[in-house]
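During the reporting period the student researcher (J.K.) took over the structure-prediction task from the postdoctoral fellow and processed the backlog of single-chain submissions. One of the processed entries is reproduced below for the supervisory committee.
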Amino acid sequence: MDKKDINFLEELLYNTDKNNLISQLSKVDNPLILHFFVANYNWNSGFDVLTVILENEACDLGTGLLMFHYADGYSLLDNSDEFSSSSLEKWKDFLNKIYNKLIKLEFKSQNIFFDPGLTKIQKYKLKKNNPNLPDILISKSPGEMVDIPKI
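J.K. obtained the following structure tokens:
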């Protein structure tokens, strides 16, 4: 990424006008900017902005997987009953959207590598509890490894 892209990313990350941010993110056509934004996003700011990124055609599979795991998708995979009984409706809706998009492979590109960092034991337990669990949710995504700038 060049200096111009980094400046744009900083502008997005520190934008306090949510409607303006959503408008700008919906127009971003660079998958790396979306990926770096998500990796640096303050997750206490809610899921509206992240949903816009998920629905952006430039969102890469690796970014979708990153969002799934950063939003604690492991909880959904590990204990679906506990997940379903959670009172955090926006969180559940967001995770369900990502889950469905990931298992249907509804991403136009698969160029950004993401490793969810699950151990062999975690993967084994998840597969044991749910033999039909799609590997895409617990495995490394295809693509090129990128260094995520900390902004």
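The committee noted the following: The CA atoms of residues 6 and 33 lie 9 Å apart.
J.K. will present the remaining backlog at the next meeting.
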